[in-house]
Structure formats: C-alpha cells, structure tokens
Amino acid sequence: MLFWDLKTGAPKKGVPYRAEAIGMLSEEAFRLSTSDAMGEYLAYFDEPDRSSSLDSIMKALVRECRKEYDKYKKIPEVKYKEYVILTSEAECVWEDAKKNNDFELFKPYLEKIVGYNLEFIELWGYKENKYDTLLDLYEPGMTVEKLDAIFSELRSRIVPLVAKIKESAYQPEDQFLKQYFDIGKQEEFGLYILGRMGYDFDAGRLDESEHPFTTGINPGDVRITTHYYPNDFISAVMSSMHEGGHALYEQNISADLYGTLLCDGASMGLHESQSRFWENTIGRSRSFWQKYYSRLQDFFPEQLKDVTADDFYRAINKVEPSLIRIEADEVTYNLHIMIRYEIEKALINEEIKVADLPGVWKEKMKEYLGIIPPDDTKGVLQDVHWAGGSFGYFPSYTLGNIYSAQIYNAAKKEIKNFEELVEKGELIKIKDWLAEKIHKHGKLLKPEEILLQVAGEGINPKYLIDYLENKYKEIYKLEF
Description:
mainly alpha; Neurolysin, domain 3; 22 helices; 3% strand
C-alpha cells in the first residue's frame, strides 16, 4: 500500500522518507522469512514422515517458503535493505528522468541496481548462464536455452508476417484515433468496461500513474492504474483492460490461500497471460466491439460519428512498428520484448555496460523494427522495470502471449458459443471459467501444471503464431 501511494501521488519531498519506511518494513519481513526459526520450521516439515502427511496446501506452502528462504538466506540483511531503498528511490528518479529525457540522471541508480543483481547472482549461484537465475525468479524453470528456441520460432514467422502486412494495399486508417478525447470521459468508459469484465470495485480501484500497474494487497484490495493521453484514447482503454486482467487473477484466488505465499499468481508469465487475454484476445477482437462500439460512440459522438465499427476494429489492430512497447500492436509487440531480452542478457553477462544502453537500444530498435528513437524518453527510459530491479521480467510478456493463445484455444473448445458470448457482452461467464481453471489455484500449482490442465500440453508458441496469422490475414487480406 505504501508503494501504491508512492506511485499515485505522494509528495515528491517525502520520497526519501517513504523509501526508507518501505526499506525498514521490507527488512523486517526479510528477517522473519530468513530467521533461524524459519529454518527450523522448514527442517521440521521437510522430515519425510511429516511431509507425506501434509495436505496439498501445506505441501505447496512449504515448497514456496523453502524457495524464498533459500533465495534470501544467502543475501546479507543489510544488503537487502539497501537494495529495497535504492529501488524505491530509483523509481521516482526514473519518472523525472523520463519526463526530462535525462538518462544521465538515472544512470548512477541503474548502475548500482545492476551491481546489486550481479552480487545476488553470485550468492545464489548459476549453472549455464547468469541470466537464468533472474529468469527463474519470474518464470520458474525458464532458461536462456529455452527462451532462445522460443524466440527463434516466433521470429521465423512473425518477421515475414510483418513484411507481408507492410506490403498490403489494405492499410487501416487510424487518424481518427488521434483526435482530442476528454480524459474524464476516457476514465468513465474505462471504468464501465472494467465493470463488464467482472472487476470488483468493492475490492479495488482505478487510479492514474506514469506507468500502469497492478498492486494486489490482498484479494479484497487489488488496485490498478492507467495513464491517460488526450490524443491517444486507445492507450488508456487497453492498459485498463490489461491491468484489469491482472486484477481479476488476484481477486479470484481461493479464500483457502489468503494470507499465505500461495495467494499470488503461479508465475509472471501466467499472470501476463491473463492481462494479454483481456487486452488483446478480447479487447482487440471484432466480437467485443460489435457489442461495445455503440457504447463508445455515446461517450465520444463527435469524434466517432463517421467511423464504422469495422473501421474502428481495423484501426485499433493496425500493425506499424512503434517506439513505445505498451502501445505496440500484437504482431510487433514480441519484437520489443526480444530487444529487451537481448539487452538484459548482455548486461547481466557483462558484455555491455549501463552507459552503453542508450546507444545499444537504438541499434536494436533499428535492427528489429526499422525505427530509431529520437530521444531516450521514447527509448531506453520508457519502461519502469529496471528502476525496480526487475531484470528477467520482460520475457514474461511474450510467455504470457503464448500462454494466452493456448488458453484461448482451450476456452473456445470448452465454453459453448465463446464468440457469441463476447458479441453479447456476456464476459462474466468467460471470467468465471478463467477463475475456475487458473485464478483460484494461486501458487498452489506450478505454472506448467496449470497450463497442462488447461491446454493439455506444455508451452507451445504455435498457437500464438497461428492466432496472429489468421487474425491479420483477414484484416490485411493477405495470401499465405
């Protein structure tokens, strides 16, 4: 809650003191989770006779507590507190650096954050690649070797798809999306759609921040934020649906798991699958706007009076290399993630330095997307993740896209008249299916176990590629 307040309007002069308070509380939680008493508890429950008698929740709880204990026990307490304070301050410095296009302001903080991560990796240990240790924090069992193979398969079919789309004579017109859209009306429409998705406002709220995020304090208090642009209405709608997807996951975890480490998403990839499912699979679908476009026109009659539902659908799905990741279309989005993945790998393996990042970023953008950021605000400073120390997080977005496509494939088989439900705006039935299949389990099951139960197989990028090819073949009238 202190973090949420820090990001949604706390006075800037209070930032250092707030960061210190967060650091103190984090240090105390760290001390408890790595105490000798915790070690004794874990040893007690690890005894074969006792372990075999535990129920499924207690077994999973011991598993997750053991993982946390083993990870943090290796970090000196004072070092952990310093790191939490550093990242809390760095996120606020990043906001100023981004607004003022001032990478040099942020650089010393980022250098320290990278330095801490390198220290932690040495303490935790690694086998094949230093970056594997960070990947495992967000997606258990994921490695550079596995990711390289996944990204290679995606690249082999997405790059040609982008080329075909670029050559198509049927390019959507999207200038009407760049008109002035009143921010108050944007917020009102976003709240309306969140309600239709099943987001419980008695257990959450919507606020504004520089970078949209979700904070799950407990399933009865899951807060989300978005960011409004007067001349880019679709950004706030999609980020609200995206964060709403995260929030639905947190709000629908089983009450049996409240107050434990299991009251969380199974992995960041699985968490992202829910946000991407609502933002893209539902929010950018033709079926969704067949129901809600007339409602949108009620909010913005002047801006949309001469725009048909089909024109709107094609416009919000326009494929065009963009500078900003969170505004990227579905097809090029994963190229943005590949850029960040390759930069992080190189940084953590000490092949490049923090000072190199602005230049490397521009080189990668040119290589993958054919465009060069005009400044660091639209380049290396656009994401908050590194300020918070979240190295290894970015691949979760692509993994989430892959999981989402597999979940969508399963949902269409199990939910009768899936598309018809979306067309009628009966989204609660879909939310309930997701809650039963995924949300309620929290961390009780591992991500691969949940995916196996839902999709009948492990991670498979084929479904995402097929989904993208089929959808955009129709929009751009492509031949395959």
